């Protein structure tokens, strides 16, 4: 199921021929978007984006901000030219087909040709197929991007008038007036769907099932509700996350805000990369003590086991698509301000279209990878069943893929961790989530403490 909504956008013009909306044989089952949904896209280099890492996020408006940034590079976007909404088990495939239809009809003038230039859609998808959170791709009206020394503006429209020629609008003209970023003020926290004691009891049950041989690993999650004095301004959260968690991918898509350290997949010109995390220890703040903790983590059999399941699940999911795959034998320790993680960067070269029949898009790869054992467990089906049975939580978009997709299908998808879901009906409310991998040697109290450590980035963001 998908539905598609387009808006009307004025601007300097080039008149285009009327588009047809005949059924598209390449995408059976997908109702072709109306002629008005034909995308017109123009990407132009800009020189006036300031050099500092916060420059992209500073452009964002208070409403409808879209972001995917890391160390000052990435994409900041706003406005909504089209929205693709999907649900159920086919949420990825339906979104993929609808986007493929749109981009196959796009009229693109891209003078740069880098990843993230040209047509772009931002997406966020539910962890579980039964969640009403479904999936969304948002096609923005304006994207500003940076990759190293190159910065650009992309303007998108669905009407037959678009600024394909003539002067490029300035950043200021595109942004217009927008209220200053505001602090959420005082924040109070309350338990989410499950009380702490019930959650540790559920972890105990999970450990018992694992010891009984029913599965090897399951990831158990919980949520916490934050209420703020002032309406939550996503830009406040994004700026604080990007400043403090610079090695993470800071994102904002359709109400999901966070800074994830885990890259589900990046697909770029035939190369795929996935940063797999599993196995965690809290930091103390002291440098020497943290180094000792890093060494302990690197040798912890419980954490290495947890990590091995996650790496195997990613390698197995990517292998059918790749002509070569590099899976590190031992993880490195990733240092974040709140925790240390065992991490592995899995990389591969995609099969060519002639070898595989077609080249999968980054979203298809994300679908194939989701859910990895870093957020679900091993074996996947047994872990998913146990999560549904005992977790007591609708994860919604938490732990689902979040990221962006380009006109050629390349893109970047993170796992929506260290994140929160803004409440569309209450601007003072955000649900924060965290989970942890449970194996036979897990201890419920320690797992609860680990979720607290993983909530730290969003608590910091709310400041
Ligand atoms: C499920 C989460 O973390 C995953 C990613 C890194 C380390 C994890 C762990 O050590 O349990 C989890 O698998 C979360 O942050 O909510």
From TrEMBL:
GO terms for biological process: salicylic acid biosynthetic process. GO terms for molecular function: isochorismate synthase activity. It catalyses: chorismate = isochorismate. The keyword Protein biosynthesis does not apply. It is an enzyme of class 5 (isomerase). NCBIfam families: isochor_syn (TIGR00543). This is isochorismate synthase.
């Amino acid at each position: 199921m998908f539905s598609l909504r387009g808006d009307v956008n004025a601007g300097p013009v080039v008149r285009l021929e009327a588009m047809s909306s005949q059924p598209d044989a390449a995408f059976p089952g997908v109702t072709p978007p109306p002629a008005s949904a034909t995308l017109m896209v123009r990407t132009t280099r800009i020189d006036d984006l300031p050099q500092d890492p916060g420059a992209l996020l500073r452009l964002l408006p208070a409403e409808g901000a879209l972001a995917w940034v890391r160390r000052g590079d990435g994409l900041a976007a706003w406005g909504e030219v089209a929205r693709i909404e999907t649900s159920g088990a086919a949420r990825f495939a339906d979104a993929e087909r609808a986007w493929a239809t749109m981009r196959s009809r796009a009229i693109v003038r891209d003078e740069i040709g880098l990843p993230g230039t040209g047509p772009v859609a931002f997406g966020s998808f539910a962890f579980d197929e039964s969640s009403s959170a479904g999936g969304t791709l948002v096609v923005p009206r304006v994207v500003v991007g940076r990759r190293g020394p190159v910065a650009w503006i992309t303007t998108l429209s669905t009407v037959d008038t678009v600024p394909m020629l003539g002067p490029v609008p300035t950043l200021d003209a595109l942004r217009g007036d927008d209220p200053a970023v505001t602090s959420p003020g005082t924040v109070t926290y309350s338990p989410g769907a499950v009380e702490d004691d019930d959650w540790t009891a559920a972890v105990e049950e999970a450990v018992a099932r694992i010891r009984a041989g029913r599965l090897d690993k399951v990831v158990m999650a919980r949520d916490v509700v934050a209420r703020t004095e002032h309406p939550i301004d996503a830009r406040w959260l994004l700026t604080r996350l990007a400043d403090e968690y610079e090695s993470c991918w800071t994102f904002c898509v359709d109400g999901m805000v966070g800074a994830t350290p885990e890259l589900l997949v990046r697909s770029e010109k035939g190369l795929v990369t996935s940063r797999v995390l599993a196995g965690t220890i809290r930091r103390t703040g002291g440098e020497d003590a943290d180094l000792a903790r890093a060494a302990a983590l690197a040798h912890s059999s419980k954490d290495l086991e947890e990590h091995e399941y996650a790496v195997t699940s990613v390698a197995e999911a990517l292998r059918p698509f790749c002509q070569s795959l590099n899976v590190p034998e031992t993880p490195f320790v990733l240092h974040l301000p709140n925790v240390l993680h065992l991490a592995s960067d899995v990389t591969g070269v995609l099969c060519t279209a002639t070898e595989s029949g077609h080249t999968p898009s980054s979203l298809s790869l994300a679908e194939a990878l989701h859910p990895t054992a870093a957020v679900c467990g091993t074996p996947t089906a047994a872990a998913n069943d146990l999560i549904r049975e005992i977790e007591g939580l609708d994860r919604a978009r938490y732990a689902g893929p979040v990221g962006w997709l380009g006109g050629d299908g390349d893109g970047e998808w993170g796992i929506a961790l260290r994140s929160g879901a803004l409440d569309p009906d209450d601007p003072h409310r955000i649900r924060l989530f965290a989970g942890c991998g449970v194996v036979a040697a897990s201890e419920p109290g320690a797992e609860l403490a680990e979720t607290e450590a993983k909530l730290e980035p969003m608590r910091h963001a709310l400041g």
